[in-house]
Design goal:
Radius of gyration: 34 Å
Strand content: 15-25%
Mean pLDDT: 78
Low-confidence stretches: 179-187, 198-208
Shape: elongated
Order of helices and strands: HEEEEEEHEEHHHHHHEEHEEEEEH
Amino acid sequence: MENNYFDNLLNTYSQEVECVYKNEKYSVRDNGAIMRHTKEGKRPRPNDNKWTFGVPSSETGYMLFCGERVHRIVATAFHGEAPSKDHVVDHIDTNRNNNRADNLRWLSKLENILNNEITRSKIEYICGSVENFLKNPSMLRDYTHEDRNFEWMRTVSKEEAENSLVNIKEWLKNAPKTKETSEVKGKIGDWIYEKKSNKDNFMKGYQMPKLTDEQKKQQEEAKQRIIQELKKCEDEAEKQRAEEERKFEEEMKRLREERRKPIQSITSNCMQINWKTPMDFICCPQTYGAFPLEDYANALQNGAVYAKSSNNESKVEFFTLDDDKSRLWVVSYLGLWAYGIAEITFKEGVFYHEYLDRFETSGACDQWITTELQGKEWDGYDYLANE
C-alpha cells in the first residue's frame, strides 16, 4: 500500500525540467522528485536513471540523495542558482520532506529565520523577542541542532501540502507563545495534512498543557542552559576567528617577506624586488663610471620605455636622482590613473630595482619622493592630502 502511495506521488506532477547541480545532470519534477542521469561516456551507477524523492536524514530531517540535499537540486531546477553562497533554501511550510517546487524559495539565512512563523516562535522563546535576536543574532548560533522533531514530516501530495500550510498557520494564531509552541511540529501528527472545515477543530490536534510552577522553573532553567551553550559556541567561534586572523596575518607577512627577496631580472646585471614578473630594464647601462646611477639617469628619457616584459611595459613619466647619487627613482604611468614608483640602487656591480608604491597622480609621487624618501621640505601643492 505504501509503495503504491509513493509511486502515485512520483508520477503525479505538472512540470518536469532538467538542471545541472554540482556537475551532475538531473531531471526534476515540480512534485519534488529527481532523477540523476548517467554521465556521458560512463557506465550507469546504481542510483542513476531512477526517480526518487530521496531518503530522510535522521540528523537533519532533510531528504538526501547520494549525500546531496534534494531541496537544493529542486530549487536550482525551478528557481535558478542560489543568489549567493550564503543563501539557503526555505521550506515554506517547514516540512523538510516537502520538496515540492512551490514550497521552496531561496532566502538569506536571516530571511529564512524571520520569514517563518514557527521559527519566529522559537526565537521569541529563546531570545525573549525578535528585537533581542536582531540586536544579537549570535544568541541563536547552532540552535537548529536542538530542533530534531521530524516525526510529522513526510513527502506529500499537492493537496496535503496546501492543507498543512493552512492548518499550521491557523494553529499558530491560537497557540500561546511558549516552548511547546516552538516544538509543535513534533507533536501535531497526521491531522495537520487533513482538510478542515471548522476552525474549532484546529486546536483538537494538539492541546497545550498547563504548566505547574515546577515545570515553569524547569523551563526557565532549560532556557538558561540553551543561552549558556549559545554563549559558549559564540566564544569558541570568536577564538576561531581570532586564530584565523592571526594565521592570515602571518601568511601575509610571509608573502611580503617573500616578495622582498631579490630575484634575477631578464637583464643580466639587474635584480628586482617586489616585482611580480621578471623585467627587462632596457635603459640599464652595461658599462658605467664612478657613479653608475648617474649613468643610468642619463640613459633615461621621459616618455620612453625603461622596463618591459612579455605582458607589459613601463614608460618613464619622470625620474629623480638623489643628491649623493646613491638612489635613483623612476615614476611610470601604470594605466587607470595610477603611477608607480621604483627605486634603483647599485651594489657590487648589480643594479637593484625595487617597486615601492603607487599613487593616483604623478605630483603625489614627486611629493612622496621629496618628503618621505629624501627627507626634504615640500613647498608645493599637497597632493597627498588630496588623494
